[in-house]
Every structure is written in C-alpha cells, then in structure tokens.
Amino acid sequence: MEEKVDRRVIRTRKAIQKSFEELATTHDYHDITIKELAEKANINRKTFYLHFDSIEDLVNSYVNEVTQRLVSLFKQRSFKENYEHPGQNLTELISLLQESKDFWSRLLFSDEYSFFTRKIERMVAKEMTQSILASFSINRDDAKLCANFLIQNTLSTLRFFINDQRNTDYDQIQNKISRLNTFGISTFLNKFSSGPQIENR
What we know:
Blueprint: H1 2-24, H2 34-41, H3 45-51, H4 55-75, H5 79-84, H6 87-99, H7 101-109, H8 114-135, H9 140-164, H10 170-183, H11 186-189
Helix pairs in contact: 1-2, 4-8, 6-7, 6-10, 8-9, 9-10
C-alpha cells in the first residue's frame, strides 16, 4: 500500500513539474498562477500545496536540482583535471540544457528568472571554491574569485549564444567558453595586439 502511495506522489509531482515547464516557456514568471498550474496538471490547489508552498518554492526545487547536477559534474574529477580539460564538464552541461531546451533556456537565461540564476551561481561557486582549494595552494579569497568568474562566465556566455539564437553549434560554443575560462580574451585579441601593458603601482 505504501509503495502505491509513493508512486502516486511521484506521479503527481511529475505532473506539476511538467505543467510548470510547459507554462514557463510561454508565460512570464509572475503571470503563472497556482490555479492555472493546478488545472493544467489536472489536480486541485490543495494537492499542489501538499508538494510545494508556492510557485517560488517550485522554482527553487529546480534551482536545487540544477545546482546538485552541476556540482556533481565537477566533483567527478579534481578541479585541476577540470581546469586542464574544461571540455568534459561543458559537454555534460550542454547535454543537460538539451534535455528540455526551451524550459532550461528560460529558467537559466531569461531576465524573468535572473534571481534564481544568481542563486545557482552562488551555490555552485561556494562548492567550486572548496574544489579549487583542494587542488591549488591559493588563499580562499582568490579561490572564491576564480570560482565566481568561472561559473558566471560559463553561464553568461551560454546565455549570449542561446539568446542570440543564430549559433546553435554547441562544439563552437564549448570551444569559446573553454578559451575564455582558461585564457580570458587573449586568445581572441592576441593576433591583433601584443597584449596589455600592465603597470605596477
């Protein structure tokens, strides 16, 4: 009996999530109501509240899911290995985005959900900081700086290409992100310049 209840709970939760994913691709975040979501999932409002406290709580469940998946990706290898072979994690991240492209693009890269994206960035950067410290002998502030740069640059560059919609060559996107994360803009500009002149003050 308990197994049947568990399956019913899982089915209901999946129905809520599927309905939200469909609504999120066509509605602004603040326009999605629990009433409309419940009707689309073929449940009543009371059933919705058995699973989530609010629409924000539902979106936060995706934030936690994405964060856990991203953290699990870079924890499969040491940060040093990830840094030396950045394409491995990017391939897996892009595969995640392609699972439900319209929805994940909306959640991660639209202005409507930018508050939630920042949450993901903060949570992933916190875990990545620890990974960096385990691989390199640098101070915590520098590790935090590197972690925040890497996660923000990766997501903002993906956002640039996905919102632009003219370039869906993921191999090329992956290559550009890897170059930016590893060498900054120098690989794009060095053929035109001898590089920056940094003054010590």
